[in-house]
Structure formats: C-alpha cells, structure tokens
C-alpha cells in the first residue's frame, strides 16, 4: 500500500509504505490526534552508513513508572502517567524500494483516550512554529511577559485551543533561544552584540574595562544617535546610577540631558562593577573619549563623594552641581528631629536653595537658621555650607544649567528603564530591552516635532502674586514669609 492511499484511510495498517520515517511519523501522529493519544518516538536502528533501518513509534503511556529506590523519599512525587500501554507502529526499511513499510502494528490501548477538545494539549501535537516563535521573540524583546505573549497569540488564533502549544512549550522555546544566544558565554555574546551594532552603524561606540584577571568590570556604550544628541544638547548633563536592572546587580549609570523640546535625551550608558573612584574615573573618561573630548559645561549628580572625586580629576573645568532633590532628602534625614509643627526651618532652608539671588541675603538667613535651631555643631549642615557654590541659587547665577537643578531627569529615565527590564535578564537581553527605552524616548521627540508643526504656539504669562519676602516651602508646598 503506497502513500497515495493514506489520505483515504486514516487508520494505519500492516504493509503500508512511506517514503521516509518523517512521513511515517506524521501519518501516525495524525491518527493519534484523531484517536486521542500522544506518540513517542521510541528506539531506532541504523546501518554502518548511518541510514535508519527500523524505527518504533509508541503510545506515550508505554511501560510503567519505576519504583523509587533511594534512601529518602522525596517530599513531592509526580502523578504516574504510564500504564504499560502496548499500542505501537514499527516501520522497517526495505532495500529494494528504499521505502519504510509497517512491519508491526498494535492499535489497542489499555487506558482512556483524550477527548477531541483536549487533543491540542498532548505532547506530540504541540509545536511552536517558526512564525509563532518569531512572534514570541518580538513580544519578549518588546517587554511582554510570557503570560501576556501567550495570551496575545491565543487571541490572534481565536482561542488557546488553536495555538498549538502550551505556555510551558513557549517557555522552553525562549529558553533554548536564550541558550543559543549565549553559546559563546555571556561576555562573548555581549561582544558579539556590540560587533553586530558596529557593523550596522560604524559610529556605534563601546568600551570595556578588564581587571588584572582579564574579567570584564565596567562597560560603556553609546550609539550614533546618542553621539549626535550630545553634540547638540550636551552643554548640561545629569548622571545618576540605579540598581536592580540586571541579574548581576551591576549599577547602571546613564548620562542624560534635555533636547529642544525639554524632553529626555540619552547621551550614553555604563554598566559598572562598583561605585568606586576608579570606576567613575574610567566611566567619565570613556564618556569624554566617545564624545571626542568635548566637555559639558555643567554636570549634575547626587552627593556621592566618589563621583565628586572622579569628576574633579577627569573634568576639572566642568562645573559640578549637586542635585537639589537629594539635598532635600538628606535634609529630612539629618535634620528631621529639628522639624516640628509650624517650624520655619524647611522654609528658610528652601529659600536659601531656590529663592535668594544675593549672597548677603543668603548668608544672613543661613546664620539665622544656625543660631535659631542650635545647629552650630551639625556636621552635615556645616559640610553642605562649604560646598554652597554647588547648590545655592545665589552662587550659581553665572553657571549655565538649562533650568536643571536636580537629577530628576535621570530618576525619571531609571523608572522607565525598570519598566522594561527584569532582574533575570542576562547582558544581551539587557541591551535589547535598554534599546527599547531609547527608541521610546526618540519616538516621543518625533511626536513633539509633529505637534510643533501641527499646532500654533501659545504664550502664557503668569503673574507673581507673592511679595519678594514670601517663598514656597519645597517640602510641604506651603507659603511662608522669610525675614529680610
């Protein structure tokens, strides 16, 4: 019996012939789908030339579960699925025709068969197709979870029963893809990724720092768009680090600025081994190398001493400003015990930071703060006063900051990054998802460009309703009068 008769009779019979063992498996698996059992590829025999001479396809419930022979019984055991079913189809290669013929056949099962509605759950019927796998990869790169990706494909297919695989199958497929992408090791795969980016755009810049054991410690990269943006908008830069973006728990540092629409632009990023002076020196130095030696006029950071020391060495001519948000947070940390109901301490401190434009007025109010609240011995406040030129408005009048006084740009970007990244991401996954964040910010710039050309400009005037001696508390948003 040849293959042309198989479509007319869906039940296997002795003497049937197939052109290949794959054709035999497809036919038997199709029959299994109709009947309600799953097929397992059992033993095969090959000749000295490696040609398969015989193969057996069995019911997945063949044999029985072996008894546990260990000394300690496991806490959890899987429910048995084997019943010793003898259903099978054995094919043998006949040299004369070079076709596979059904040599042995058992159709009876000793167990209950699955209903048609559950047939798609049987192992031999589940397979992630090339198109489905490609769609799952795109969904993962876009930041969708495994559950969301599976539900999306199920919706497009008209129900989970039409998908052709389970969520566990999709998980295994993506794991295989991940293992394939890391076949050169995580470091080698990362370098391959950088090489691909360089081939795509020769302007892509990347650098890695190695320790004495030739292990990668710090990584910096910037694509062509980042280099162009820095050339136009790199006068004022904020730099901040964040954690929990990758499974190595490496701190991620991002150089950020404003574009012409006062939107976030990214100038470069670094995965750091630690936050020491040496690491920051390498990151800042590599950043300048990527930008062809162009120094920013101003860089804003938090009150990290290692950053400050590294900046004073690498960028001595760049003005280093401190983030007012971190100063306010440290204010509550170090002076919270002085903050009482109706106290004017936060108002006066906020005025020193944001309001006063004259140095004399700043010094007068600062002395009043120290004396009134007995803060002469407070080390944090004394240290902050020594570096007042980095945060007080009256000391920064000659500095160009583009209206930025904090690293809130970096904080906002860090929040967006964490929406796309997960702790279990390896380095290659991390870079792919980081690019999603960069693309999102660049798309926002295109939206702003369209809105600017589409809509007419509007000029708004705001009247100052407060006297010059009244300021707004930066902590509680209340109005308070400051003595002149």
TrEMBL record:
Positions of the FAR1 domain: 26-114
Domain MULE transposase as annotated: residue spans: 236-329
Q: Which InterPro entries match?
A: FAR1_DNA_bnd_dom, MULE_transposase_dom
One matching Pfam family, short form? MULE
Protein name, UniProt field: Protein FAR1-RELATED SEQUENCE 5-like
Q: Which PANTHER family match?
A: OS01G0519700 PROTEIN, PROTEIN FAR1-RELATED SEQUENCE 5-LIKE
Q: Which source organism?
A: Coffea arabica (Arabian coffee)
């Amino acid at each position: 019996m040849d293959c042309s008769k198989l479509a007319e009779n869906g039940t296997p019979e002795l003497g049937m012939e197939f052109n290949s063992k794959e054709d035999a498996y497809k036919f038997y698996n199709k029959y299994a789908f109709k009947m309600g059992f799953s097929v397992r590829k059992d033993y095969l025999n090959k000749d000295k030339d490696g040609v398969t001479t015989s193969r057996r396809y069995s019911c997945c419930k063949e044999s029985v579960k072996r008894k546990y022979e260990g000394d300690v019984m496991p806490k959890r055991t899987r429910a048995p699925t084997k019943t010793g079913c003898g259903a099978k189809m054995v094919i043998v290669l006949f040299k004369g025709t070079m076709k596979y013929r059904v040599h042995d056949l058992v159709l009876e099962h000793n167990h209950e068969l699955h209903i048609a509605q559950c047939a798609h759950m049987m192992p031999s019927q589940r397979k992630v197709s090339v198109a489905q796998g490609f769609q799952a990869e795109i969904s993962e790169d876009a930041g969708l979870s495994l559950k969301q990706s599976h539900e999306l494909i199920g919706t497009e297919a008209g129900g989970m029963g039409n998908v052709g695989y389970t969520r566990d199958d999709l998980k295994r497929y993506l794991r295989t893809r991940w293992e394939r992408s890391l076949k050169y090791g995580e470091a080698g795969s990362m370098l391959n990724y950088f090489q691909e980016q360089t081939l795509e755009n020769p302007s892509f810049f990347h650098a890695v720092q190695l320790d004495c054991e030739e292990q990668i410690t710090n990584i910096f990269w910037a694509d062509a768009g980042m280099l162009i943006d820095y050339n136009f908008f790199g006068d004022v830069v904020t730099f901040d680090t964040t954690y929990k973006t990758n499974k190595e728990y490496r701190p991620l540092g991002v150089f950020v600025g404003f574009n012409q629409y006062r939107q976030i632009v990214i100038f470069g990023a670094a995965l750091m081994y630690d936050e020491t002076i040496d690491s920051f020196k390498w990151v800042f130095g590599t950043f300048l190398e990527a930008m062809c030696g162009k120094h920013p006029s101003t860089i804003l950071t938090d009150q990290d001493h290692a950053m400050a020391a590294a900046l004073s060495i690498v960028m001595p001519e760049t003005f280093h400003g401190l983030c007012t948000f971190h100063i306010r947070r440290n204010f509550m940390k170090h002076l919270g015990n002085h903050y009482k109901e109706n106290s004017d301490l936060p108002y006066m401190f906020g005025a020193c930071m944001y309001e006063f434009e004259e140095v004399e007025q700043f010094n007068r109010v600062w002395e009043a703060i120290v004396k009134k609240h007995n803060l002469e011995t407070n080390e944090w406040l004394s240290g902050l006063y020594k570096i007042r030129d980095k945060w007080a408005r009256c000391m920064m009048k000659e500095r160009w900051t583009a209206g930025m006084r904090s690293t809130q740009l970096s904080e906002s970007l860090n929040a967006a990054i964490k929406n796309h990244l997960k702790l279990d991401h390896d380095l290659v996954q991390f870079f792919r998802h980081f690019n999603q964040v960069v693309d999102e910010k660049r798309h926002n710039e295109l939206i702003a460009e369209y809105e600017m050309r589409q809509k007419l400009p509007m000029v708004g005037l705001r009247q100052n309703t407060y006297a010059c001696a009244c300021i707004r508390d930066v902590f509680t948003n209340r109005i308070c009068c400051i003595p002149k």
